Structure formats: C-alpha cells, structure tokens
C-alpha cells in the first residue's frame, strides 16, 4: 500500500512565564511507508528491501495554548499564537474579550505597545530588530486587525466619536499607507457615520409606532387569519426570525455581558438579543390572541384555529425554525389555552399526535438532549430530517419536504436562542474569571467559545434561506393587539366557564417550555405577580393542583419593558393518547413557579431558572472534544466535588429576581452574603445587615448562624433556593 499516518497527543504539562500560564500538548505524527517507496526515500533500489518491510518516520511538535494571563500577555499572544500552533486563539479572543476588556484597551496594547518596535520588549517581539522582522511583525498585526474587522466589526461602532476606528485609521496611514485595509476602515467609518444608532428592527415591534398612519392595534379577525396559508405564515415567521438571528452579536450572549442588563446604565445593552425576545413573545401572544380574542367563536371554530397553529408549527419544523416552533408550542401549552378542555376534544386525532411529537422535541429530559442533538444534526443539513411514528404524519411531512427539495433551495436553521444563553450563564456562574495571581482565566473563554462557535455556525447557515417578505402578513402581524394575562384568562373562562373533569385536553410536556424570561434572561428569574385570578376546582392529578389559572405572565423587564412576557406550561392530567409522560423525572421541576399552583410550591421557593433542573447538566466541553474525560461543572440542585450552584433572591427589595451563585465547601455565610449583594447590585460591605435563609417549604425556612458553612449546613434534599433578608 502507499502510506498511512497516525496522530497521537500527549499532555506536556504547563509552562509558566511572567504574567502567563500555558498548557503544552505534544503532537506526535507517525508516518508509515511501504517498502519499495520507503527504499527510494532512503536512496536504495526497490528490490533491496523485502516487500513486507515498512519504513516508519516520527514527527513531534509542541502545541502551546495560553491558559491564563494578564491582558498584556493575552494581547501579545495574538501575535505569537500561530507560531505556537494555537490556531483558533485569535477567533476565541475576539469572540470573548469583551468579558474582561474594552476594544480601546486591546487596540491600544496592540498598536501602541506591540505596533511600535522601539518600545517592544516582550517575548518573541523583543528579538525583532531587523527589517525583515519588522515586516513580519507588521504582517502579524495586519493579520489580527483583518480578523478583527472580519469577525467583529461591530466592536468599532462607537458613535459619535468612533475613537477606535480613528486610531486604527491613523496607524494604517502611518504604517500601511494606501493599503486595502486602510480603504476598508475608511469605508466602515463612513458606513457607521451615515447610520443612526442601531435600533430594534421595525417589523418585530408590537407598538403602534410601527404601524402605518391611521392604523390601530386590533384583535385578530378569524377570517383574515384563516386566509393566510399555513406554509406562508411559517415562512414569514421564519423570515422575521432569520433577520433578527443573523443580527445577533455573539458576545452579547456571554453570561458576564447579558447578566448586567438589569443595571440602570445598561438599559440599551444587547439590543440584538432583546429583539429576539420581543419577536419570540410576539409570536406567542399572537397565537393566544387569535384563539381567544374573538368572543363570538364557536368551539369548533376555535378548535380549527388551534389546528391551524399546530400545522403552522409543523411547517416551522420543516423550515428548521426552532424559535417560532417553540413559541407556538409554548403558547398552546399556556394555561389559558390548555384549560379549553372541550375545544381540544374537537381537534382531530392526527393533528393532536403531530402536536405531541412537536412538543417532545423540547422535552427537558437529560438537559434537553433531544432538541440539542436535533439542532446540531440539522445545523449543517440541507433540509429537515423528519421522522414520525404516525404513518399519516410521516406521509404528509415527506410530501411537504419534497416540495421544499424540488425548489432546489437549501435551508438554514434558526435555533431557540435561550438554550445557548442558558449554557453561557451556567459557564459564567461555574467558572472563575481570574485564577491565582490575578491572571485572566482564558480557559473559561475557550469553553464559552465552544457555545459561541455554535451560534456563529447557525448564523452562517441562515444565509441559505431564500425567503421573500409578504407585506400583507407582516402588517397583519404588526397590527395584532396582544392580550394581557388577565384578559386572556378572562376570555378563556368566558369561552369555557367551567372545566369538565371528565374531558381531558392533550398533555403538555412537563417542563417543556420554561418561562421565556427564565431561559432568555439567564440567572434572573421573575416570579409571577402575587395577584392571581381565582382558581377553579382541580382537574385530575393530585389534590391541590389546578390547571385553571392564568398562565401568561407579564414578566416585565425592569418593570418597564414588555419584551420579557412569558408563557408557562402547567402540570396536567394524563393524556389519553399517551400513557407515559416525557420529562417527568424526579428532581427539580422547572414548572414550579409558574402561575399554576403545583402542590407545595410557593412564589418564594419554587420558580424556574436556567441553572435549575436538568438544564444545568452537560455543557459542551473542550476536553470531551479532545478525547479526555470532561470536567464536571458545578450545577444547581446538586452538590458535586465540593461545589454547587444556589439561587438567592432579595427579600422585599427584589424578591421576584433570583441570582445564581457558585459556592464551595469552603464558603461561610459572610462570603456567600457578600457575593449575593454584589450580584444584586447592592453595597457588599453591608454583610452584617443581612441574614441568609434557605427556603425549605411554603412555611419552613432554614436560618444559618453567622459563621456557618453554607455547603455543609444547607438542606440538600430540597431546592437550593435562598433568601437574603435584612435583619430586623
């Protein structure tokens, strides 16, 4: 045979320099060559070696990847990483540096310290004193700048002064005059100057300001909604989702960035993520208003609208739009829709089965494994991979999919962004920003980049969509007046005044869709308002459970914005079509804390969190990619390896907002109290003024002595929910 090679990796330990720590990996490549060709390599004749003889050659190289360092060292590493065979370093740094530095700080280090040879005295740069070396350095800096402009040009959008762009332009004029990059920066500066400050795209706005003059918000006309074909609605929702998702700035998703949005000075932080939340909730509210908004509808007509939305959700699945798919399913599982027992009885069996299959995609079993695997499977596929256990649904799916294929246009994939935000919030909570010596923990940034890279991959896939906006539908979608939770509850009660205990609606997946504020807003969890509409008698299930309460929670962001409206699923009686319940494992139930009154759940002790339940499980690990055993991260509701994550709310001041906090078996009350105060943007020196208690049940709390060890003193058999209360 010709030749073959085998590559093995070996841990080379660590290398420590002043201001930096490196991980070293030895890469060993074995090349095996057949006898005849090997003999020629050695300068001999082909028949001088036996045919079974092979020639082996070994080549060993060292890969050096920075693990932690000062900002200065991390910036210097941008110039040397390629020589160290750390080929992904520049991309990782550019995608995550906003968590620990500003664009100006990085640019000044890159251009002022390393861009000037006279002042260079760091690492490999110190030896660059010849003309050739100067050209090499200039080429390295140019390579970094080019990557920066390619991957993160938004970093330079700093109206009205654009100081970083002007500084970069000045450097290029002096060092690379008349270059392509100089003209590119000039064009970028003109582009930014000619644009207004980036705002949320108009079509996803549900305010009257986005309407044509003379138009007003209105409740959906059933006939007008029915006039839109199912696939047209799905395509238009996908068009809107694609436009917003492609504009998402990946670093906005970092836990350390997104978790700062509730500060007063950050009210405009991460507008691209806020836009996706607004659109998601607009879809959810639209579903509810079309079903409940017209009082005169007969039960059969309302059932037809539910069927239409299930069919639209199926079309979204064919288009690989998991965002609107999840929005529609969560709306159908909201309490105001779910409680319509008689209406659901008029939904055809085939459509109900389709609804069940679509719901299973978002089962919370094993950290939403089904939706994660499906998302990654379809991220790079040309078309959706549709499987159905029902023959009729399978035939229909394949027929619709074939129509898509016949068009010859590939499809992208629109994810549910909340999954990635959850992972990044968990990583930010579980991993320290700095390590010993005050060095920036760059290993944390490598882990975060694994999630960011998935977002970028999916954004790239969205370029494959070829969708044309339908202004008639978009205007209709804009005009919809969204019902408040009280309105939807009242209309639901008017539609079906009393629930018949002998009639069961389809069972929503337990914990299928966490409240939208929970998954999108990271560690902050907004519990529903205390004022709840009166509940009817329980329907099925255990005593104390009610499926007849308002479920569309107005989780307003900072009590002023409507972008965090959320829909909560509820516990429900057993579905006659399905004997086994998906996602009903023992353990923390993220449904608790919704407006539905699950047994033993209070607004204090039970609410959902991205760090809760199974959602705190597996986070992609670079170690697992490399083949070694992945390192377990601390998680919520489980003590592991001397650490865990707890949730702390402020009593009275902000009792509806939880913050996730990492604790270890070394932490005592003052340490945890101080971190909780910092997380809630309060004065950390006021530790002595507060006491920490764990919520055991609706009427029980565990109060900790002043110097108690929280890890060992807490009750590990209940939810890890704590309250920080000001002492009397």
TrEMBL record:
<feature type="compositionally biased region" description="Low complexity">
    <location>
        <begin position="593"/>
        <end position="624"/>
    </location>
</feature>
<dbReference type="GO" id="GO:0005886">
    <property type="term" value="C:plasma membrane"/>
</dbReference>
<feature type="region of interest" description="Disordered">
    <location>
        <begin position="524"/>
        <end position="634"/>
    </location>
</feature>
<feature type="compositionally biased region" description="Polar residues">
    <location>
        <begin position="547"/>
        <end position="557"/>
    </location>
</feature>
<dbReference type="InterPro" id="IPR023578">
    <property type="entry name" value="Ras_GEF_dom_sf"/>
</dbReference>
<dbReference type="Pfam" id="PF00788">
    <property type="entry name" value="RA"/>
</dbReference>
<dbReference type="InterPro" id="IPR036964">
    <property type="entry name" value="RASGEF_cat_dom_sf"/>
</dbReference>
<dbReference type="Pfam" id="PF00618">
    <property type="entry name" value="RasGEF_N"/>
</dbReference>
<feature type="domain" description="Ras-associating">
    <location>
        <begin position="642"/>
        <end position="728"/>
    </location>
</feature>
<keyword id="KW-0344">Guanine-nucleotide releasing factor</keyword>
<feature type="domain" description="Ras-GEF">
    <location>
        <begin position="229"/>
        <end position="498"/>
    </location>
</feature>
<dbReference type="InterPro" id="IPR001895">
    <property type="entry name" value="RASGEF_cat_dom"/>
</dbReference>
<dbReference type="Pfam" id="PF00617">
    <property type="entry name" value="RasGEF"/>
</dbReference>
<dbReference type="InterPro" id="IPR000159">
    <property type="entry name" value="RA_dom"/>
</dbReference>
<dbReference type="InterPro" id="IPR019804">
    <property type="entry name" value="Ras_G-nucl-exch_fac_CS"/>
</dbReference>
<dbReference type="InterPro" id="IPR008937">
    <property type="entry name" value="Ras-like_GEF"/>
</dbReference>
<dbReference type="InterPro" id="IPR029071">
    <property type="entry name" value="Ubiquitin-like_domsf"/>
</dbReference>
<dbReference type="InterPro" id="IPR000651">
    <property type="entry name" value="Ras-like_Gua-exchang_fac_N"/>
</dbReference>
<feature type="domain" description="N-terminal Ras-GEF">
    <location>
        <begin position="62"/>
        <end position="193"/>
    </location>
</feature>
<dbReference type="GO" id="GO:0005085">
    <property type="term" value="F:guanyl-nucleotide exchange factor activity"/>
</dbReference>
<dbReference type="GO" id="GO:0007265">
    <property type="term" value="P:Ras protein signal transduction"/>
</dbReference>
<feature type="compositionally biased region" description="Low complexity">
    <location>
        <begin position="537"/>
        <end position="546"/>
    </location>
</feature>
<protein>
    <submittedName>
        <fullName>RGL1 protein</fullName>
    </submittedName>
</protein>
């Amino acid at each position: 045979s010709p030749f073959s090679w085998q590559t093995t990796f070996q841990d080379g330990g660590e290398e420590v320099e002043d201001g930096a720590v490196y991980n070293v990996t030895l890469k060993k490549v074995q090349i095996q060559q057949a006898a005849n060709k090997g003999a020629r390599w050695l300068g001999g004749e082909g028949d001088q070696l036996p045919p079974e003889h092979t020639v082996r050659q070994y080549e060993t190289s060292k890969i050096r990847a920075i693990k932690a360092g000062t900002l200065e060292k991390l910036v210097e590493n941008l110039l040397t990483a390629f020589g160290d065979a750390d080929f992904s370093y520049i991309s990782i740094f550019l995608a995550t540096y906003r968590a620990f530095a500003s664009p100006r700080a990085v640019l000044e280090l890159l251009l002022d310290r390393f861009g000037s040879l006279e002042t260079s005295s760091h690492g490999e740069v110190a030896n660059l004193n010849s003309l050739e070396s100067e050209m090499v350095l200039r080429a390295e800096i140019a390579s970094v700048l080019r990557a920066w402009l390619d991957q993160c040009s938004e970093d330079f959008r700093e109206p009205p002064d654009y100081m970083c762009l002007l500084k970069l332009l000045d450097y290029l004029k002096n060092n690379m005059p008349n270059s392509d990059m100089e003209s590119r920066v000039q064009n970028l500066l003109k582009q930014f100057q000619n644009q207004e400050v980036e705002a949320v795209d108009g079509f996803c706005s549900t305010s009257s300001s986005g309407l044509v003059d003379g138009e007003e918000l209105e409740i959906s006309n059933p006939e007008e909604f029915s006039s839109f074909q199912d696939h047209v609605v799905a395509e238009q929702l996908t068009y809107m989702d694609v436009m917003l998702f492609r504009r998402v700035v990946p670093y906005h998703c970092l836990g350390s960035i997104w978790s700062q949005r509730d500060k007063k000075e950050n009210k405009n932080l991460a507008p691209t993520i806020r836009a996706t939340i607004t659109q998601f909730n607009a879809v959810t509210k639209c579903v509810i208003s079309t079903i409940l908004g017209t009082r005169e509808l007969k039960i059969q007509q309302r059932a037809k609208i539910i069927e239409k939305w299930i069919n639209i959700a199926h079309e979204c699945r064919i288009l690989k739009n998991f965002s609107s798919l999840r929005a529609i399913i969560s709306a159908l599982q909201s309490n105001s829709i779910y409680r319509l027992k008689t209406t659901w009885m008029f939904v055809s069996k085939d459509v109900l089965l389709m609804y069940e299959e679509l719901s299973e995609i978002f089962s919370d079993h094993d950290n939403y494994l089904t939706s994660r695997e499906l998302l990654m499977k379809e991220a790079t596929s040309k078309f959706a991979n549709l499987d159905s256990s029902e023959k009729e649904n399978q035939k229909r799916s394949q027929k619709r999919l074939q129509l898509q294929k016949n068009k010859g246009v590939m499809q992208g994939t629109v994810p549910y962004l909340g999954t990635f935000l959850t992972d990044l919030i968990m990583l930010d909570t579980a991993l320290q920003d700095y390590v010993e010596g005050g060095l920036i923990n760059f290993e944390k940034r490598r882990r975060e980049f694994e999630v960011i890279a998935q977002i970028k991959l999916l954004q790239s896939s969205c370029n494959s969509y070829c969708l044309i906006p339908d202004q008639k539908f978009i205007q209709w979608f804009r005009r919809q007046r969204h019902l408040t939770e009280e309105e939807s509850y009242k209309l639901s009660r008017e539609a079906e005044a009393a629930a018949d205990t002998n009639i069961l609606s389809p069972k929503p997946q337990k914990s299928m869709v966490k409240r939208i504020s929970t998954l999108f807003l990271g560690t902050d969890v907004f519990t529903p308002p205390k004022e709840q509409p009166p509940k009817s008698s329980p329907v099925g299930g255990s005593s104390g459970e009610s499926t007849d309460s308002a479920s569309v929670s107005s989780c307003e962001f900072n009590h002023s914005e409507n972008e965090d409206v959320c829909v909560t699923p509820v516990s429900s009686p057993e579905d006659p079509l399905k004997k086994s319940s998906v996602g009903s494992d023992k353990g923390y139930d993220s449904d608790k804390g919704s407006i539905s009154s699950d047994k033993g759940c209070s607004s204090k002790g039970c609410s959902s969190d991205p760090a809760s339940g199974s959602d705190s499980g597996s986070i992609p690990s670079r170690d697992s990619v490399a083949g070694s055993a992945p390192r377990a991260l601390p998680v919520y509701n489980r003590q592991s390896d001397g650490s865990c994550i707890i949730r702390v709310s402020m009593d009275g001041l902000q009792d509806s907002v939880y913050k996730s906090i990492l604790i270890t078996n070394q932490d005592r009350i003052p340490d945890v109290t101080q971190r909780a105060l910092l997380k809630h943007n309060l004065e950390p020196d006021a530790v002595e003024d507060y006491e920490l208690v764990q919520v055991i049940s609706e009427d029980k709390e565990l109060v900790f002595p002043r110097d108690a060890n929280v890890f060992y003193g807490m009750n590990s058999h209940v939810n890890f929910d704590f309250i920080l209360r000001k002492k009397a």
